[in-house]
Amino acid sequence: MMIDLELSTSLLFCLIPFLFLLFIKTTLANLFSSNKSTSKIPKSYPIIGSCFSILANKERRIQWTSDIMQNTSNLTFTLNRPFGFRQIFTANPANVQHMLKTQFHIYQKGDVFKTTMADFLGDGIFNVDGDIWKYQRQVSSHEFNTKSLRKFVETVVDTELNERLIPILATAAVEKTVLDFQDILQRFAFDNICKIAFGYDPAYLLPSLPQAKFAVAFEEAVKLSSERFNAIFPFVWKIKRNFNIGSEKKIRVAVNEVRQFAKELVKEKQKELKEKSSLDSVDLLSRFLSSGHSDEDFVTDIVISFILAGRDTTSAALTWFFWLIFEHPETENQILKEAKAKSESPVYDEVKDMIYTHASLCESMRFYPPIPIDTKAATEDNILPDGTFVKKGTRVSYHIYAMGRVENLWGKDWAEFRPERWLDKDEASGNWTFVARDTYTYPVFQAGPRICLGKEMAFLQMKRVVAGVLRRFKVVPLAEKGVEPVFLSYLTAKMKGGFPVTIEERNGTDI
């Protein structure tokens, strides 16, 4: 261990002059160039690869890589990273199908992903491949397909909506206060997923907007894990981890907090189940434990993974959705009309029949997918359908954000927010029918064997929130109309600086 530390330290000090010069050159380049990034494939240099371009576009890497792909003939390009590492980006549906289905066995999570997320996710379903993944997938798939879980999810979402979210919005409307709606929706989603996963209520969405310890630690762990992924020189965070300094000290504290708290909940649930003759609780943790999966680390890993999946994805989708419909009032009116027509229906029937709302959410996620990029690693040499050679060990990223902006996939009107592109209308009855796109053109919920198990749960939650909020309120962004918020990506998408809004109570004359 000491030898590793000494080598890492020596390497770091050797690179300090180089990094300093690199910083100076990049800073000068930014000062004397326009703020617009080029859409050409970035120039690559020996040893450092396309380091200058990566640094210059660090704050808009999603948009930058998307622009490059849209200017290539096959929607694919290779980015040369420092020290000979290459990463392939693609927005080609044929390549996506090749990776996620046809050659699924070749394109795995890979060592980079596993190493980066190992301390946080352990051997959870989102951080493993092979037999371990297959086993967890089978167990989880069985639990997700039960009617009792669906009913439990409905109850959890409805309770959080009516007892917490709606009262907070009502107060904001009366007092004319400004809310960070991104933060509100994140709190809403966090309470929901913790109740569904653990049967535990963190009470994160209270009028006081508390800094719940578990939620704050989880947020920190996600943010710092994302910074590891985006590091231009990954060895730097590994050195900091060896010395337990800086961001790596923070991530260790946050991860320990999350995992210890989760393990305590597992122990409490095990004790509770032993004392009861029948299962009253139907949360995922109870289901796993009652099915005979008593290994503490196993259930802790898998439930933390589900919190990660459900915590920010729905809130990210809803944040951008509410901004988009304010920009498109005709869409908002259609959704409001549909929501009011279904207001007397049971929860599941209500959201199931909200076809126009479903299409609007899909269209919103086309522009702003909650997870804008996903990456796999090739376990052997391979050739993508567009002819791109993939060397063993190379990371290949399918770019969901870019795929929603390709004219060949969505037509000349791709830049228009138009939910009708997902719909067919029966001229006789006037009823809409939803027309899904294939999952390799629209991989917002992944595709193939790893397709998202919680997809239906996510839509249920999102449509319930949309109907519940819009029936009573109008969400009004503070930003000037037509000014697009800055799209950021950690592990999931964010609006830079939050989403400040005011809330207006609707009157009886609204559609």
TrEMBL record:
SUPFAM superfamilies: Cytochrome P450. CDD domains: CYP86A. Signal peptide: none annotated. GO terms for molecular function: heme binding; iron ion binding; monooxygenase activity; oxidoreductase activity, acting on paired donors, with incorporation or reduction of molecular oxygen. Its cofactor is heme. Keywords: Heme, Iron, Metal-binding, Oxidoreductase. Heme binds at residue 452. Belongs to the cytochrome P450 family. PANTHER family: CYTOCHROME P450 (PTHR24296). This is Cytochrome P450 94A2-like. It comes from Nicotiana tabacum.
